[in-house]
From TrEMBL:
<dbReference type="Pfam" id="PF02254">
    <property type="entry name" value="TrkA_N"/>
</dbReference>
<dbReference type="InterPro" id="IPR003148">
    <property type="entry name" value="RCK_N"/>
</dbReference>
<dbReference type="InterPro" id="IPR036721">
    <property type="entry name" value="RCK_C_sf"/>
</dbReference>
<feature type="domain" description="RCK C-terminal">
    <location>
        <begin position="152"/>
        <end position="231"/>
    </location>
</feature>
<dbReference type="GO" id="GO:0008324">
    <property type="term" value="F:monoatomic cation transmembrane transporter activity"/>
</dbReference>
<dbReference type="InterPro" id="IPR050721">
    <property type="entry name" value="Trk_Ktr_HKT_K-transport"/>
</dbReference>
<dbReference type="Pfam" id="PF02080">
    <property type="entry name" value="TrkA_C"/>
</dbReference>
<dbReference type="InterPro" id="IPR036291">
    <property type="entry name" value="NAD(P)-bd_dom_sf"/>
</dbReference>
<feature type="domain" description="RCK N-terminal">
    <location>
        <begin position="16"/>
        <end position="134"/>
    </location>
</feature>
<dbReference type="InterPro" id="IPR006037">
    <property type="entry name" value="RCK_C"/>
</dbReference>
<protein>
    <submittedName>
        <fullName>TrkA-N domain protein</fullName>
    </submittedName>
</protein>
<dbReference type="GO" id="GO:0006813">
    <property type="term" value="P:potassium ion transport"/>
</dbReference>
Length: 231
């Protein structure tokens, strides 16, 4: 996550409980379903009446309407411009995606998240005002590649291109040793944030705490140093 993304997420209103999602493909449906299950009000739209009907039948949205999002009048009539956050989930139709993003930003929607299918698409979306752009397929592909090549890493949060926070299985080399004995900072330049215990994490573990094979630990540092761990 870069600094512009951090600024965007910090600007989101904590009391916002309504979202509009434009596009009901796989990505759009996933966003709708998750938000709806979390208790938020979700208005979804799509140009395909069948997808709108399915969203209502499957009860993954609060409301859904069929409309052409490239038409500002249709978006206004549906009340899209009144939402604080709008997700443009039209990734495979670049022209429609860009025009829709432009429409909602020109109407004054403060937070617009848009799905991109390529780097060029991302640049165009940012140019017309998208506040945050996501690459679901790219991000999923990167995550899968990391999992296949580093199966001991359970989860990763990228702070920037060079630094990350990772959750990993305690390496065999660390088994039975205390936090102080593994000398994580001196040997690898990393800082230990937490270790797991009985299904929960102990933050800032005591230096005398012994690590066990099969448990998890969370570290922060440079990706090059993380890659030097015996995993």
């Amino acid at each position: 996550m870069n600094l512009s993304s951090l600024k965007f997420f910090r600007s989101l209103r904590q009391d916002n409980n309504q979202f509009a999602v434009i596009g009901l493909g796989r990505f759009g449906r996933s966003v709708c379903s998750t938000l709806h299950n979390l208790g938020y009000q979700v208005l979804a739209t799509d140009v395909d009446e069948k997808l709108v009907s399915e969203a209502l039948t499957d009860e993954i949205v609060s409301h859904a309407v069929q409309l052409d999002s490239t038409e500002p009048a249709a978006l206004k009539e549906a009340g899209i411009f009144e939402f604080d956050t709008v997700i443009v989930a039209i990734g495979n139709y670049i022209q429609e995606s860009i025009i829709t993003t432009l429409n909602v930003k020109e109407a004054g929607v403060p937070h617009v998240v848009a799905k991109a299918s390529s780097e060029v698409h991302r640049k165009l979306l940012k140019r017309v005002g998208a506040d945050h752009v996501v690459f679901p397929e790219f991000e999923a592909g990167c995550a899968l590649a990391r999992t296949l090549t580093k199966p001991s890493i359970l989860d990763r949060f990228d702070l920037d291109p060079d630094h990350s926070i990772v959750e990993l299985i305690v390496p065999d080399e660390f088994h039975g040793k205390t936090v102080a004995e593994i000398q994580l900072r001196n040997r690898y330049g990393l800082n230990l944030l937490a270790v797991s215990q009985d299904g929960k994490f102990k933050i800032n573990p005591d230096p005398t705490r012994r690590l066990e094979r099969g448990t998890a630990m969370v570290v922060i540092g440079c990706n090059k140093d993380i890659n030097r761990l015996p995993i």
